[in-house]
Amino acid sequence: MENIYLNKLHLEPPKGLLNDPNGLSYFRGKYYVFHQWNRFGLNHSYKEWGLFTSTDLLEWKHEGSALLPDTIEDKDGIYSGSAMVYKDQLYLFYTGNTKNNGIRKSFQKVAISKDGIRFLKNPGFTTPSGLSEHHRDPKVFRYQDLWWMIVGSQTTSKKGVIALYQSKNLMDWTYEGVFFADERLDQMCECPDLLDFQSKQVLICSPQKRDVVTDSAISSYSAYILGFVKAKKFEPISNFMLLDYGLDFYAPQTFKDPKGRYIMLAWMSRMTDEEEEKCPTKHFGYLHCLTMPRELILKDDQLIQRPLEEILNTQKLLKIDSNSKFSMMQNSEILSIEINFKEDVNHLSVILADEVELIVDTSYLTLKRKSWVDDSVQEKGLELTSLKKLEIFLDMSAIEIFINDGQKVMSLRYFPKTISKKHIINCQSKHLTKVSILNIGGKNGK
Ligand code: FRU
Prior knowledge:
Distance between the termini: 18 Å
Mean pLDDT: 89
Strand order of the largest sheet: 28-27-26-25-32-33
Shape: globular
Low-confidence stretches: 325-331, 431-446
Bound molecules: beta-D-fructofuranose
Structural class: mainly beta
Helix content: under 10%
């Protein structure tokens, strides 16, 4: 059976289950995207780091395993973390997860490589007092002539916080206390990140909401907060703002590329256990993908997300406006559509592949997706002050929608049952003008 879900613009593992992007970096002429990986199965029982590399952010190669759970401090999982290039060596910072007689213990560890292939691990350090063993996902950055490491954490009284460490040499780390605490970090904060835009800093976090009784994740999301780093603390000056308004986005990570851009990738899933269980790609031996790399820019106190120009340059963009006349296209190349809104068209419905509908009604945008579990409709809504442009990246089983040049973004997976339904786009305005685009998919470009 042909795999009609193989994405062209979204990184997916050759087999097994992928989750968070890890260790994003540029080292010796190559971009590195490590990722959480269970290469043995389609569940979360085993975690190592797998690796994709690229020289141009367009063509990627999966290199297989990169870090294995083979020491006493990481035997039950190489959990998420980040990377830094220093003195021509690649440093990976990650959490070693251990469980002995059901008791969790976390170690923050460093693995160093001269060639990006063989890594030498250090033993790492344990969790400071006052914090629980839900202490993970170290993100390292350079700030004010020091190395800083922020770690997602939880107090012993089960409040989400972000912990701070500092170092002069990337090897020896001192605990500097809680960097940020807030009720909205819920019971635990996963995958923190900090972006320095000079005038302001942006803190990214993924508060993890857990059902106290079953201890299974029930609803987690990723947010950003504007603020200032002052005296080893993050002082917020904004609310928590959603990084993505779609259905599948979590655990983002950023890095600075050689051009000085902040580039972010995220895990493109917030699937429930049942959704994961019934996800159609399981049939082909793999689960989940990452978002496309996005550039992050701070503008008018808003984090703007843009598809990378490298990707935009390769896309045959279909440009239409919201009162276009009916048209139909048949071209497997077309994966991106731009809809420019005319002032008089404020009601519009765009149906993608018969599975996903975007409804624009004056100042509200509704996203509806048919669930692959039971065909029920899942919905997300978004208040808009104005709508000028929608850019839709329609991959084989993943969609990213950039609203008003990336002021807001919606990411989601979709799984049409047959190839004939693939990429049929139907766009209808109040004036009953209609645009349909038929894109039959075709061979995967990877
Ligand atoms: C987020 C997360 C991280 C952890 C990793 C384990 O999705 O739970 O906090 O390090 O996944 O796979």
